[in-house]
Amino acid sequence: MKTRISFLVCFLFSLHAPLYAQAELTDALGRKFVLRNAAQRIVSLSPAATEILFAVGAGGQVAGRTGYCNYPAAALSVPVVGGFSGATVSVESIAALKPDLALVSADMHQRLIPLLEGIGVAVFALEPRNFEEVYAVIKIVGRLTGHEQNAILVTQRMKAILARIEERTRGKKAPAVFWELYDSPLMTSGGDTFVNEAITRAGGRNIFANQNTRWMTVSFEQVLALDPEWILMGSDHGVDVPTRPLWKTVSAVKNNRIAVIDADTIYRYGPRLADAVAAIARILHP
Questions:
Q1: DSSP secondary structure string, 99-157?
Q2: Which of 51, 62, 109, 183 has the fewest CB neighbours in a 10 Å radius?
């Protein structure tokens, strides 16, 4: 938490400096980064970072991406340097692209950082944990790429969508929601996830929000005891809930209240998080 707060404070402080004056930024790993000029050739090792780059107007500066960076469609023409896992990324392919910046995941790519810096590539690690940190990340990507004003507009759009949802759902009962991440073993979202925050902002109540964790294994008996009114899941997960033995006793199944959300919008920390909240709100509060 202290590292993330430091990252946000250092970034907000840097906004008061003249554009591309020698500003020191702090990434999600607490590493210092001196910004002198806008990056012109960027390798993105995160699908979320790729979405942000294109959203702020830096798509033409993206020189490399992962095979999972599939949005927007324009990203598909960018050379692929590997998968999302650090073990699948080809440092040789990155070196061949001659980038001046790599955006990486603080959780997934720590082992790659010294390798990339060893070939002369500046590295900035990203890993926001909530919506406020997403806004800060979008702005810092805009700063790194010379698109600060566009980045501000992106965050303003997100906030406007969420404000409309909050206004529409204010005072309404929050339906109890079970988010199914996986079925074997049965896994769900705890309180420390974008999923939990999205459900809350959409006017719902995650039945496992009191668990101060990210992803957790639960039992059917726990779900049944909390008896959710809705079962939601990402589109990367098959909908076979009604066919499972005993699940017909759960209120959500009895009332056919099972819905699917586009997985990329809710699992990635990009601008489409606001769209995921809107989708959930339309389901919970039609």
A1: -SEEEEETTT-TTHHHHHHHTT-EEEEE---SHHHHHHHHHHHHHHHT-HHHHHHHHHH
A2: 183
Domains of the chain: 2-147 (3.40.50.1980), 172-284 (3.40.50.1980)
Closest by alpha carbon to 275, among 193, 182, 154? 154
Residues 22-38, mean pLDDT to the nearest whole number: 88
Beta strands 62-64 and 186-189 are: unpaired
Q: What is the pLDDT of residues 167-226, one digit of tens each?
A: 999 999 999 999 999 999 999 999 989 999 999 999 999 999 999 889 999 999 999 999
The least confident of 10-14, 88-92, 265-269 is: 10-14
